[in-house]
Amino acid sequence: MSSATPRSRTADAGTALHSAEEALRRARRTYARRLLGLVADALAERHPEAVRLDVRTVVDGREHVADVLRDARGEYVWGDPGRVVVVRETADDALGGPVTVAVHDARDLVLRALEVHDGPLEELLRHDPADGTHWMPLRRG
After folding, report:
1. How large is the greatest C-alpha to C-alpha distance in the chain, in angstroms?
2. pLDDT at residue 8, as a whole number
3. Comparing 73 with 139, which gets the higher pLDDT?
4. pLDDT band at 94 (very low <50, low <70, confident <90, very high)
5. Per-position DSSP letters for 25-60, written without gaps between them
6. Mean pLDDT across the chain, nearest whole number?
7. C-alpha torsion 17→23→25→26, nearest 10
8. Cα separation of 128 and 135, whole Å?
9. What are the angstrom distances between the C-alpha of 140 and each of 48, 51, 52?
10. End-to-end CA distance of the chain
């Protein structure tokens, strides 16, 4: 027989649930950051003069739209981030090299990352409180 009381088992289950939920939040944030990093790398390669991708918030702050690419001075560089080829390393590849997954719309990938994350934008994007703009840096560091 177990010496654990129903109350202690309930507390243990609550702790386990909290730990699992926290691990899920961290995994979602990590996935979102990696996805945004892939998009940023592809955009930086195609538009070397751009340093950021603005993300507009619409519909009472509940929907987000990847907007325009800007340079270091905040000047407009390109209006449509376009499509990006997302590559990944896979263990399945016989040569151990990069495998092209697919061509995706950059805006869709940014939106997917933000939806998966489901947390404050400031955890993933930079924010300019002066004008309320959120943006994704295209250069790491």
Report:
1. 71
2. 67
3. 73
4. low
5. HHHHHHHHHHHHHHHHHHHHHH-TT--EEEEEEETT
6. 84
7. 160
8. 8
9. 13, 10, 11
10. 56
Residue 76, strand partner residues: 70
- Which token pair is 73? 């001075």
pLDDT class of 100 with cuts at 50, 70, 90:
low
11 secondary structure, DSSP code:
H
> What six digits make up the tokens of 37?
């990093």
Joined together, the tokens standing for residue 88 give 């990944």
- Residue where the block lists tokens 């990093």: 37
* H helix count then E strand count, the chain: 2, 7
Residue 80 is predicted with a pLDDT of 86
Read off the tokens for 133: 């703009």
